[in-house]
Amino acid sequence: MELFIVIIYTLSLLFIFLYSLAQLSLLFGYLKAKKSTNDNCEVYNLSKTDETPFITIQLPVYNELYVMKRLLNNIALLDYPKDKLEIQVLDDSTDESIKSTLKQVEQLKASGLDIVHIHRLDRKGFKAGALKEGLAIAKGEFIAIFDADFLPKSDWLKLTVPYFKNPKIGVVQTRWGHINRNYSLLTQIQAFALDFHFTMEQVGRNMKNHFINFNGTAGIWRKACIEDAGNWQGDTLTEDLDLSYRAQLKKWEFKYLEQVETPAELPIVISAARSQQFRWNKGAAENFRKLFKAVIKNKDISFSTKIHSFFHLLNSSMFLIILLVSLLSLPILFIKSNNPIYAWYFNFMAFFALSTVIFFSCYWTSFKNIHGSGTKNFFKFLKLFVTFFSIAMGFSIHNSVAVLEGHLGKRSEFVRTPKFNLDNISDSWKDNKYINKNISVSTIFEALLMFYFAYALYVGYSINEYGFFIFHGMLLFGFGFVSFKSLTSKT
Fold it and tell me: What's the pLDDT band for 491 if we cut at 50, 70, 90?
């Protein structure tokens, strides 16, 4: 049994190390992109009427009572010729928000906007189904998509549309911003993680011509690209990642614009973050199951792109590995203490600490690009880095369930992330009608693991083995934070 535990633990650390090497490769790509000053992409001159394409904006929404007014008012401010702009409100709502949304749409239509309210009688295909139905009647050659919590700036279309002059480009994606980044510790760590994805990962992949993904919102598709790639499909929970890979398998190119920020609202309650995390992580696993064979078999894709696609599509599966390493760390602690014959092994295992160094370097590069360097920002980063990874590990049970369901092909409903539209931390969110107030089984296990790692700390202290002390302390905090917040958000 000891040998079995050691082998599984070693293989898990090896997988994490290989994943970190893939991230290091993206870091080199990101640094190369930052040094490059040339963008040779041909662009439309939107000052010329004949070069200004027709755009359809799609707003897929479902029961968004608290943010619809803000969304529609913001979209109405986009600076683009009205005779070249159509807005589709793809409203699958089943509550009272339908009436208020329809009323506001009529008011905007009266002001001269070409805007239409499309309400489906069922949610077949969920968001993908709504987008597909709207696409069938869309007037635009290009389709911009915004979720209900996004607030593009007035010049957003003028900064993105021009790149479609290159006929090979199928998607232009922008970087997400965060209007409530500093609302709480929960929003800070979400912003920390998303900033890393939208700087280092997206730029690194795009620079090296690896597959990247449309992020579901804050981007534009060429309508012909959507249709050529097989249109929107609702058989996974991340229809954006699915269509992105199918489009790139068809040799369409993606343009990522790090410099164009599109502000959005982060979930402020852990139950909302949970639903979002579950959908994203399960959807990624579903897409690995659906698409990776096609990537491997495609002879036009380079070996390095196939490797990066492997880790990209398996990104969420890292939670399974992290959970496994976490759970095995206590038995490993006993083995280390009671079996001197493994001394050489544990000396060798120190090599895998290099993974932490790589992750630290990658996240620091991303952080300082947005917030700047300097001693003050470095210590702010250090605090966020430790806190983020602690809480990410605390989510590992919840997210591992999602990943397993995805790999096993278990279907589930598309659960939306509740929006709040709060201005400051003193505003109450407890009367939000969309909050899930059920306590999940995962929360019980998260609380139990908090005690498990408290015991692990005690064991390490008792036997004078401090190699796992920081790791177990992070796990104690992570599972404690997630379980406590999950329980208190129900009251």
Answer: very low
